Amino acid sequence: MICNASPTKSATGYSSRPARSRFSVTFRRSLRWIGLACVVAAMSAPAHAEIINYAEVGRPEDPGLELLQEDPHDLIFFTEAAGGGWVKARLLDLPGRTMPANPKGQLKFRINGIESKDFVAKWDEIESIDFWEKRLERETADRIKAGDFTGAYPFLSVLIRDYPNRPNLRTLRSEFLLRDAGSRFKDGEVGPSLAMLEELHRYAPEYKSDAVMTGIGMMTDRLMQKLMDENKLELAQQLLARLESDYRGKSLASITKWNQTFLEMAQERQDAAIAALEKEDFRTARRLSRESIHLKPSIPNGQELVRKIDQIYPLVNVGVLQTAKDPDPTRLDNWAARRAGRLLYRVLFEMQGAGPEGGEYEFLFGETEQSADRQDFTMLLQPEKLEPPLNDINGFLIADRLAERVDPSSAMYFSPWAAAIQAIGLDGPKQIDCLLRRPNVLPSALIQMTVDGSWFGGEPGSPTGDYRRDVIEGDVVRYTLVGEQRTATQPREIVEIRTESAADGVAKLLKGEVDVLDQLFPADAVRLEGNRNIRVAKYPLPSVHMLVPCSDHVYLAERAFRRALVYGTNRNDILGGELLEGLEVPGCRVLSGPFPAGIEQNDPLGYAYDQSIAPRRYEPRLAKLLMTMNANTLEGQANRKEEPVPELKPIRLAHPPENLSRSACEAIKSQWELLDLEIELVELPVGMAFPEPGTADLAYVAAAVWEPIIDARRVLGPEGMAGSTDQLVGLGLRRLEESKNWKDARDRLLDLHYIVHHELPIIPLWQLVDSYAYNRNLLGVGSDVVSLYQNAEKWRLSQ
């Protein structure tokens, strides 16, 4: 190579024909070593990777960007008197990395690629040295000047990494940012251009500051206008707030302009709010006043106007996943109906919370007493302490209603109450005595009856609560207060706004469009807990999620097939991945039965749950085997009866129209399709939680099984959700209702759990710890409420 090679160019370097040298004797002797080393290198390296590290004539060609593929080196150029030529030397150890002013003696160096040999040259034979870092700076500057920012960037990156203290680097880097930003702006890349100018301002605020600030102002103005044109007010406000924070005390024209624009928009809405207030259009006034301060929080008199309107007409917006179709505070399977029912109706015995021995109930019309042997249950009426129309109640009416609950021909018949009661008597108009057939641990739970207008001479089904359903406008339902406020701050109106999804509800809460969120995704609850303007609270009782058979589907009627569905459902994966999004949420777990398992270890809320019964694991092979065995059994039965073999029809899986249930059912569908089943998802109409007969085969239900002693029959009984006629299930329910004390009740609930685990009248999924969230400006909501509206009369807005 060194002796005979012609000038060549490769992908990684250049070579020139060496000429006879007039180098010093010392250096000429060293060339023999160079030749030998190059021969060895040529024998061991592929030709395309060859990099020539010296030549005896000429100058090295410019490798362009490929320079960065070479090892760092200094170029030493020799004088004509010494014979000319050049070498690529390893970085020289010279003071200040510059040529000495009056060099004397010799320079010792090593040539790249020949690491084992030292070379020397007299200083008077050296014409110049092109230092590596200066070459990088020159390459960077030339490319910036030519507008080749893509080419300049790698050279600049190496300088920043390896030579951060170079005196010219700050200017070089600043010029790159400024000129590249200008180039991008001309190409319409406003966002990247602004990012580069802001980086320049942070890095070197002194560098051409007037030009930089002018550019930032121009670009932010363009970006703000774009966001406004696209009606992205929220993003525009966030950008403006950041600009004000980052450039406080600086003269940035766009800040002044857009502050004025937002002030004018806010003032316009404030004026409209005042006009609406004068017309007593309180809903519009409230909306516009809040929009005003949302656009410009510092608008004069903004907070005062909001406070004034809230005092005159307190109104609370509640974000919900479902609005209620038929409000009923005693519904087990319909969250929306149960929530809204609390506004419209009162319950004879309303659950207030959970205690160590089941629920804690409040008698609507007074107080209760129970004898020591738990067979006498007395209701003491206190009408003098009640407000209209509740104070018109009398013992005779309540006794009649309790008797109707015993009559099988009555629509109010409830078999557990009929089985428990022996006699109902009156001791005057204010005392009702109930004699029980056997000791009962929670008789109040048996008579959770909705109190409607018929109790006071009104129409059956008419509301008795503080609110009435006023207007239904698409996804908005308004509940307005009837009569006088209980307190000066009680909301005159509660507006339920159905959100597209849980995430949409969170966005509306953060924007101030709703004051409360009724139900959160568990993962959203965890994330919102870190927001200082929002309070997140958990409902004390978890919801139990299950699949309930609701048709005469031949295969679903078979226990083996239902068991196959359980083994074919990766419940842990759906719960942890789809619903909890990988977060650990205490209390959320897969279940093996129809009752809540409690939230903590040894939680009394889980008194009906047998912790020793583990949920069935995900075993798709076993699921397929069970399905095959079940099909063979049905085929054998059909052949014996000389009937056609039942066809495995598609399974219709119904779910409420909200994204938590939808996500779960989509995941279940995907897993069951791996078992070669055909699954059809059926989304229920808004407000419905259980399908109409004939429209689905399985229903996804999130049930409030808060009092298993009573709710067991409501879930599993022949007239319950599952409509089970299984003899073992029926026996378990009857034995439970015959319990004489708390120990009996608990033992028989555990027995019932065992029966359900094996018979599978329902397919248990998981329990979720549900949460609600509200703006901290809303006071009186409470932190341990069973139902969101439990303390609605105490709510008050504070600005």
Strand content: 15-25%
Strand order of the largest sheet: 18-19-20-9-21-29-22
Average pLDDT works out at 88
Regions with pLDDT < 50 over 5+ consecutive residues?
1-49
Class from secondary-structure proportions: alpha+beta
**Percent helix range:** 25-40%
Protein name: Extracellular solute-binding protein
InterPro entries: SBP_5 (IPR039424), SBP_5_dom (IPR000914)
GO molecular function, one term: peptide transmembrane transporter activity
Domain Solute-binding protein family: 498-683
Explained architecture:
This is Extracellular solute-binding protein. It comes from Allorhodopirellula solitaria. The chain has 22 helices and 31 strands. With 799 residues, it is of the alpha+beta class. It folds into five domains: 123 residues, no CATH class; 106 residues, no CATH class; 111 residues, Dipeptide-binding Protein, Domain 1 (Dipeptide-binding Protein, domain 1), CATH 3.90.76.10; 99 residues, Periplasmic binding protein-like II (D-Maltodextrin-Binding Protein, domain 2, 3-Layer(aba) Sandwich), CATH 3.40.190; 227 residues, Dipeptide-binding Protein, Domain 3 (Dipeptide-binding Protein, domain 3, Roll), CATH 3.10.105.10. The strands form nine sheets. It has a seven-stranded mixed beta sheet with strand order 18-19-20-9-21-29-22, sandwiched between helices. A six-stranded mixed beta sheet has the order 24-28-23-27-25-26. Helix 19 links the parallel strand 25 and strand 26. The radius of gyration is 41 Å and the shape is elongated. The N terminus is likely disordered.
